[in-house]
Amino acid sequence: MQLENKKIILTGGTKGIGAATVKAYVKEGANVVFCGTNDERGKAVEASVNEIGPGKATYFRCNIASKEDVDAFFAKAEEVLGGLANIAGVEGNCAAEAWDDDKIDWLMDINVKGTIWTNQAAYKLFEKYGTVDGSIINYSSDTALSGMPNGAVYAASKAAVLGW
Fold first, then answer.
1. SS3 of 7, please?
2. CA geometry: angle at 53 spanning 51 and 54, to 5°?
3. Which of 153, 17, 3, 134 is nearest to 87 (CA)?
4. Does the active-site annotation cover 154?
5. pLDDT tens digits, residue range 40-69?
6. pTM exceeds 0.85, yes or no
7. Rounded distance, CA 6 to CA 51, Å?
8. Number of other residues whose CB lies within 10 A of the CB of residue 55
9. CA–CA separation, 84 vs 21, rounded Å?
10. Residue 110 burial class via C-beta count within 10 angstroms: exposed 0-12, middle 13-18, buried 19 and up
11. What is the pLDDT of residues 17-31, one digit of tens each?
12. Residue 38 has what DSSP assignment?
């Protein structure tokens, strides 16, 4: 078990890559606090992965586009955990000429600001506890370098994460 007794905060763990990562981490012995914005899916992931153990998963609601939500989520996670794997993100699929302010703000707020807010919150915990071996993992996408049809703004947001 490569992650036995590791303490991990993971964002975006309610579906897709995030849920699979929660499962893999718990299966390898890690204790994981994860978040998302869909409580039904979050609680379902929590229940299903806790059946496989040997680690443990705990779900809390958090919209990472909100600095206040992120700070509250990290305060809850702080009681028992340290570390961060940042997977939360959204994909926008829209022709370049069809993007409007609301769609761009939604995607950039989650993918870019969400990365910054969660990294800042993690760093504060590292600093508070003198963590010298903590890690922050930010997931990007190959589209950050290559683009994708109908995904220009998504690619730009992932390039920002890569640059961050």
1. strand
2. 155
3. 17
4. yes
5. 999 999 999 999 989 999 999 999 999 999
6. no
7. 18
8. 25
9. 12
10. buried
11. 899 999 999 999 999
12. -
